[in-house]
Amino acid sequence: MPGRIQSVERAAAILRLLAGGVRGLSLTEIARTLELPKGTTLGILRTLQHVGFVEQDAETGQYRLGGGVLRLGTRYLDGNELRTRALNWADSLAGRSGESVRIGILHEGQVLVVHHVFRPDDSSQTLEVGSLLPLHASALGKALLAFDPLACPDEPEPGTELVGYTRNTLTSPEELQHELEAVRSHGWASEKEELIDGEVALAAPIRDRRGTAVGAIGLSGAIERLCDDEGLRREQISYVRDAARSISRELGAHPW
Fold it and tell me: Any idea where the IclR-ED domain is (predicted)?
């Protein structure tokens, strides 16, 4: 049986290192972290640059992941009918609401973000495609828990609490089930500072031609923008539900 190819292993190690950083890394930092000779590291980086997997900042000389990796990593997402049909509606929702928009699907007991539209302003933002969110502490997750039959978690052991992310996270399974009943009743989900302090999110389920919830679309933003003295702004809820219904119709769901 052929042995492993060392250069491929080293290239993979460099990509993993760059993927785990919040900023670019210099040649020296990469070589030192991976305990590789600088010359070897530079040769691998130049090859990865050539194929589009790594980019180098012209001013700082630091390296970061390139667009080729993003296209490779989201190849299966591009073929996902939900994401393809939802692109225009997600853009429209971001424009109407003035907030960041995410589309999520159920993935191994979590929410996988398959599409993300930045808030339409000049603020610094981070692309969240591929990130995972907890079901019980996110609006997208609650929408899936309430309407996707495959999202129902196993019956917890008596006294078991869910993971808390802020002081507002619903950690009691009983309280969560009570909220999910309300979500089913009014057709949309929300979370107020349950995952991130100061952030509010709204979401509604996306259904296919069988009427089954196959995903959720929602928006998120600062509590000061999305809430008023009476609570969540009603127009934002309307925008989210309109977008979910439009995408559902694209997927063949009957109007409701």
Answer: 68-253
> SS3 of 33, please?
helix
pLDDT band at 75; cut points 50, 70, 90? very low
For 169-184, how does the pLDDT look when each residue is reduced to its tens digit (9 = 90+)?
A: 999 888 999 999 999 9
Top-level class of domain 75-250: alpha beta
Q: What distance in Å separates the CA atoms of residue 133 and residue 216, rounded to the nearest whole number? A: 12
Alpha helices in the chain (DSSP H): 6-19, 27-34, 38-50, 67-73, 75-78, 81-97, 139-147, 173-186, 223-226, 234-250
Place of tokens 């390296």: 63
Structure tokens at 227: 């809430």
Domain boundaries, the chain: 6-72, 75-250
Task: Determine phi and psi for 200, rounding to 5 degrees.
Answer: -120, 150
d(CA 21, CA 25): 8
Tell me the per-residue pLDDT of 142-156, one tens digit each, with 9 for 90 and over: 999 998 766 665 555
**Over the chain, what is the mean pLDDT?**
86
Reduce the DSSP state of residue 93 to 3 states and report it: helix
Residue from 238, 237, 233, 255 nearest 246 by CA: 255
For the four alpha carbons of 30, 53, 131 and 150, in that order, the dihedral sign comes to negative
